[in-house]
Specification:
With about 650 residues, this protein is of the alpha+beta class. About 40% of the residues lie in helices and about 20% in strands. The chain has three domains: about 5-305, Rossmann fold (3-Layer(aba) Sandwich); about 330-470, Isoleucyl-tRNA Synthetase, Domain 1; about 495-640, Nucleic acid-binding proteins (OB fold (Dihydrolipoamide Acetyltransferase, E2P), Beta Barrel), CATH 2.40.50. The protein is built from 19 helices and 31 strands. Bound molecules: 5'-O-[(L-methionyl)-sulphamoyl]adenosine.
């Protein structure tokens, strides 16, 4: 028997203390698409994802949530991750958690191998540690004295640590990469890694003084293994499948994977991963995704609202895989309607329904095959070839585009052939059209399988076609007489009333300075810190506030108003205030830049559009603010006027 070619693919193992957000889903779905495509190719696929649980952050998060038993906390969290991957239809073959004995065993074995090699020594470490990165930072890593990723000042640490002789492997890793430039994709990431290595690789500290959590060093019970050294070893789980054919991740963890990991493997005597694909970062309405900003979109609720397939489709249709990109729910709805409902699903339904109605649900025997039919078949063949080539390069966005272009072309063909007319005038021509369209639909449905497994399987089932596989992919395998069924795969979705109304982007910010407007008696010029940016606002708050009363206060800002000049000074938004000019504030301090729940509209609006919203205060003592019937909240913290105002007071 011929041995099947293997394909072992991994995602990073995510920190268990976070909840799965759209960014994690993006990497995991990308890996799932590749796993599914390689299964279609007939390879023996192993797809691994899982959770990184031994971090100090886990302990902190467990405490904050009132768990005395940390393991119990991680078990609870692990359920959420597993649930998310189930809803998103992720076809992983195993799910590793670093608290499992099977992982611990591998880590100890690996550590001992490196130790035996003489690559571990004890020393003193003095440096700056970012708890969120779980890594030491150098001066050059930092921006304004802070970790650029987490915007926090790192801690200064002096400790006894065990070190790993990473520097010893610098030359070897560099040579390997220089010889095999395609090992890290895209190319820009390879160049980044090469310049890191050329700048000089230092030995790294791989232990932390023992706390209650983590894997103990087999050579010193007063230390635990540094969480990254521990986590990377998860990839060795399916021993038979090592080396990995592809590690997928985003650019944030490039250095750990492309420099430290190969160093560790070379020392312990393992083969190196064959390839890394490093994609960009997804932002939401232009902002970094973060739990503390409250914009960490939940992929499960998106999937429940739009379907897992539509979400999976959208992520790879909208964002070029590899580059950074922005996520917007508006755009998801738009593409779902125009591309999935109007294009693919509509074509599918029209062709199958027409067959049901006019040919007793049996694919008709084609009449004369003409130029257009040959043209479409050729286009399908070309699409399959190009799609495969894109998949080989992990170009998930262009592969999907090719599949959808074929759908558009088939739509055009169908429309041009007017089967609703030929059924009356020349039935054999109508039969040709249906036979051709249905066969092309089988090809399109198979190409869509990695992205939209539910809908693709459903479509193939309705066409009475076999499961998706590469063999015969571009051929017309549906024979005349085959029984098929019609069904609408994607219905168009309307926006809810609430969504239609809330065209606002409302954010929390802190007033950092207040000055008098040089040319207007009643106005202040105020600067507001919104976390990632500072905005200048012209506001009429003088009647109720002295300058020093405003400074340092948290406010609610409309951030998507068209900028406007007020007496010669630009106002870049508006502070919400209740009549007679009392600012709105959150009940507790909230991180600057946090979006109010449900108010993250991503386009600019005019002042007139702003006025279409009904915003007013309710309640006597404990006041709240209603906007189009919805209470204003930032991460469950209620927004209210900073001083009591009249019940029903208008806000603007
Ligand atoms: N636990 C480590 C990884 C150890 S792997 C041996 C870790 N975990 S993480 O939870 O922070 O996950 C980081 C990864 O999540 C990124 O590399 C990326 O795959 C994914 N993403 C997290 N946020 C993302 C975006 N905003 N955009 C794209 N990917 C995102 O690091």
């Amino acid at each position: 028997m011929i041995e099947l070619k293997k394909f072992y693919i991994t995602t990073p193992i995510y920190y268990v203390n976070d909840v799965p957000h759209i960014g994690h889903a993006y990497t995991t779905i990308a890996s799932d698409i590749l796993a599914r495509w390689n299964r279609i190719l007939g390879k023996k696929v192993f797809f691994l994802t899982g959770l990184d649980e031994n971090s100090a952050k886990t302990v902190q998060a467990a405490r904050e949530r009132g768990f005395a038993d940390i393991k119990k906390y991680t078990d609870e969290m692990a359920k959420k991750w597993a649930h998310a991957w189930k809803i998103l239809n992720i076809s992983n073959d195993d799910f590793i958690r670093t608290t499992e004995p099977r992982h611990r065993k591998n880590v100890i074995k690996f550590f001992k191998g490196v130790y035996k090699k003489g690559d571990i020594y004890k020393g003193k470490y003095e440096g700056l540690y970012c708890d969120d990165c779980e890594a030491f930072l150098t001066e050059s890593d930092m921006v304004d004295g802070r970790c650029p990723l987490h915007k926090k000042e790192p801690r200064h640490i002096i400790e006894d640590n065990y070190f790993f002789r990473l520097s010893k492997y610098q030359g070897k890793i560099l040579k390997l990469y220089e010889k095999n430039k395609g090992c890290i994709l895209p190319e820009s990431r390879m160049n980044e890694v090469l310049s890191f290595i050329r700048a000089g690789v230092k030995d790294i500290s791989i232990s932390r003084p023992k706390k209650e959590w983590g894997i103990q060093l087999p050579i010193d019970k007063n230390h635990v293994i540094w969480v990254w050294f521990d986590a990377l070893i998860n990839y060795l789980l399916p021993e038979k499948f090592w080396p990995a054919d592809l590690h997928v991740m985003a650019k944030d963890i490039l250095r750990f994977h492309c420099i430290i990991w190969p160093g560790m493997l070379l020392s312990a005597g393992y083969r190196l991963p064959k390839r890394y694909f490093v994609h960009g970062f997804m932002t939401i309405n232009g902002q970094k995704i973060s739990k503390s900003l409250g914009n960490a979109i939940d992929p499960v609720s998106l999937a429940e609202k739009y379907s897992a397939d539509a979400l999976r489709y959208f992520l790879f249709r909208e964002l070029p895989f590899g580059a950074d990109g922005d996520f917007s729910e508006e755009s998801l709805l738009e593409r779902r309607n125009s591309e999935l409902a109007d294009n693919f699903s509509n074509l599918f339904y029209r062709a199958t329904y027409f067959t049901e109605k006019n040919f007793h649900g049996k694919v008709p025997k084609p009449g004369r095959i003409g130029k257009e039919e040959r043209g479409l078949q050729k286009a399908a063949k070309k699409a399959v070839n190009e799609y495969s080539r894109c998949m080989e390069k992990y170009d998930l966005s262009n592969a999907l585009k090719i599949a959808m272009n074929l759908s558009s072309e088939t739509n055009k063909y169908f429309q041009g052939k007017k089967p609703w007319e030929t059924i009356k005038t020349k039935k054999s021509d109508c039969a040709t059209t249906l036979y051709t369209a249905i066969n092309t639909l089988r090809i399109i449905s198979t190409l869509l399988y990695p992205y939209m497994p539910y809908s693709s399987e459903k479509a193939l089932e309705l066409l009475n076609a076999k499961q998706a596989r590469f063999k015969d992919l571009s051929k017309f395998t549906i024979k005349p007489g085959q029984k098929i069924k019609a069904e609408i795969l994607f219905k168009k979705m309307e926006k809810s009333e609430e969504e239609k109304q809330s065209k606002l982007n409302l954010k929390i910010g802190t007033i950092i300075s207040v000055e008098d407007h040089p040319d207007a008696e009643k106005l202040y010029v105020i600067h507001v810190d919104l976390g990632s940016e500072t905005r200048q606002i012209v506001a009429g708050l003088k009647a109720n506030y002295k300058k020093e009363e405003l400074e340092g206060k948290q406010v609610v800002m409309v951030t998507n108003l068209e900028p406007k000049e007020l007496r010669g000074i630009e106002s870049q938004g508006m502070l919400l205030a209740a009549e007679p000019g009392i600012i709105l504030s959150p009940g507790e301090k909230v991180e600057n830049g946090t979006n109010l729940l449900g108010f993250n509209y991503d386009r600019l609006i005019s002042f007139k559009e702003f006025q279409d919203n009904d915003i007013h205060v309710i309640g006597g003592h404990d006041q709240a603010v209603l906007c189009n019937g919805k209470k204003l909240k930032a991460q469950n913290i209620l927004i209210s006027p900073e001083r009591p105002v009249k019940n029903g007071a208008k806000v603007l």
